[in-house]
Amino acid sequence: MKDYFQNHQAIGTAVLLTVIFILTLMTIQPDSCLAQTNVDSAIECHKETAKAVVHAAALGLGGILKDVPPEDKRIELIRAFISPVRFYEDKSGYFYVYDFDCINIAHATQKDIQGKNLYDHKDAKGKYVIRELSAASKKGGGFVDFYWLKPGATGEQKKLGYVEPIPGTNYFIGSGVYLP
């Protein structure tokens, strides 16, 4: 019974933190990137937003997950945390989480890939996307350009993703910006 309450308390905490996180995102106002006078400035603004939200999410999840030892409960918590989060003016900003072996742990917009090993996944240009994201994350974080399905669009779109490891886990979290 004690484990039941601890697990539900952790999930409740994750939901509360998600609400706080969403409110924080709203104060960052990624829409202000629209006010940039040229495309390069707008992209830089979106990159800064992606880096900031990924860093905050990585640290937050790392803190929460340290008290959730069973793997299945960790995954449940991660999925609950990232699922509702959207940002950027067109709501194309979302999170994804993989383990370092390229297995998708959680994806906010593509639930069908959760639990799948995407080690051999190539984008439209032949790049091993998840391998490169994992490698960047293992170095402490970084940007990777690739092609991915954009919510509401047809076919893969050019994207610049940012990833960081989630402290105390074998996972990394990422987001990014779709490029014009």
**What is the radius of gyration?**
16 Å
Low-confidence stretches: none
How would you sum up the major sheet?
5 strands, antiparallel
Mean of residue pLDDT values = 87
CATH second-level architecture: 2-Layer Sandwich
Number of domains: 1
CATH T-level fold name: Beta-Lactamase
Name the features.
4 helices; alpha+beta; Beta-Lactamase
Describe what you observe in this structure.
The protein is built from four helices and five strands; from the N terminus they run H-H-H-E-E-H-E-E-E. It has one domain (2-178): 2-Layer Sandwich (Beta-Lactamase). It is an alpha+beta fold and 180 residues long. The termini are far apart. Helix 1 (2-28) runs antiparallel to helix 2 and helix 1 (2-28) runs parallel beside helix 3. It is 42% helix and 19% strand. The mean pLDDT is 87.
Question: Outline of this structure?
Answer:
The chain is of the alpha+beta class and 180 residues long.
Question: How do the strands and helices of this protein lay out in sequence?
Answer:
Elements: H1 2-28, H2 39-65, H3 71-82, E1 96-99, E2 104-107, H4 129-138, E3 142-149, E4 156-165, E5 171-178
Antiparallel strand pairs: 1-2, 1-5, 3-4, 4-5
Helix pairs in contact: 1-2, 1-3
